[in-house]
Amino acid sequence: MVCADPVPWQPDVWRSELKDAVTSVTELGRVLGLPLEDCAEGAIAGFPLRVPRPFVARMRRNDPDDPLLRQVLPTAAENESVSVLPDGTRFSMDPLRERNFARAPALIQKYRGRALLIATPACAVHCRYCFRKHFPYEDHRPDSREAALAALREDDQITEVILSGGDPLVLTDASLGRLVQCLDPITSIERLRIHTRLPIVLPSRITRDLLDILVSTRLRVIVVVHSNHPQELDSDTARAFACLRGVPGVTLLNQSVLLRGVNDRAPTLCALSERLFEQGVLPYYLHMPDAVVGTHGFHVTDARARQIHDAMGERLPGYLLPKLVREEPGRAAKTVLA
Ligand SMILES: *Cc1c(COP(=O)(O)O)cnc(C)c1O
Ligand code: SF4
Question: pTM of whole model > 0.85?
Answer without folding.
Answer: yes
